[in-house]
């Protein structure tokens, strides 16, 4: 699995869903003028951009382990402190921020509890620490049509259901394990209108994340069968798809 891809490739794949989700997460974490915030696992900058718009670029930091994403985020959001690094070892001092957020990242951390604990460390006491993960267990991620078709064509593929934090209970447990208090969770739905099947399908061909890996592993013939199956199910477009994420927050 890789996220060492161009920022534009990730944007086409997930940005259409992550941008509205990031705005909802910022609302739920009560991001407000005068605060300092950090985006952990920032990718090309969907949530980082929301934070910079609300707080000012000089009051926002971002961290990601992908060099290509760090470069893309820096180019798009000059003035934001964007660093190469991992959630499990943040390059920031204790109590540096009022809010720490991780949008669609926890399930990819090598140590999710440790990553949340680090987010709590760099957040002032009483500040919100929050995260979102798609409802992977309930098959309500944006990729659900693809995973249903993959399960039919390659039933041995594990999909994403076993990733950590992919249920309400799992995400809450990770935040509580990271030492947060008063942890609570909500559902955040996102609906995206896709003008055509090709617009929806093309981003899956660039090897982004587990879904891209799964498509690539099928080989040319398998990809052709997968595309045919998905086109039969979704139609030529336009069509709407709704995804649902769990968001959890707790106090540092």
TrEMBL record:
<dbReference type="GO" id="GO:0032259">
    <property type="term" value="P:methylation"/>
</dbReference>
<dbReference type="InterPro" id="IPR029063">
    <property type="entry name" value="SAM-dependent_MTases_sf"/>
</dbReference>
<dbReference type="InterPro" id="IPR051052">
    <property type="entry name" value="Diverse_substrate_MTase"/>
</dbReference>
<comment type="similarity">
    <text>Belongs to the methyltransferase superfamily.</text>
</comment>
<keyword id="KW-0489">Methyltransferase</keyword>
<protein>
    <submittedName>
        <fullName>Methyltransferase domain-containing protein</fullName>
    </submittedName>
</protein>
<feature type="domain" description="Methyltransferase type 11">
    <location>
        <begin position="38"/>
        <end position="129"/>
    </location>
</feature>
<dbReference type="GO" id="GO:0008757">
    <property type="term" value="F:S-adenosylmethionine-dependent methyltransferase activity"/>
</dbReference>
<dbReference type="InterPro" id="IPR013216">
    <property type="entry name" value="Methyltransf_11"/>
</dbReference>
<dbReference type="Pfam" id="PF08241">
    <property type="entry name" value="Methyltransf_11"/>
</dbReference>
<keyword id="KW-0808">Transferase</keyword>
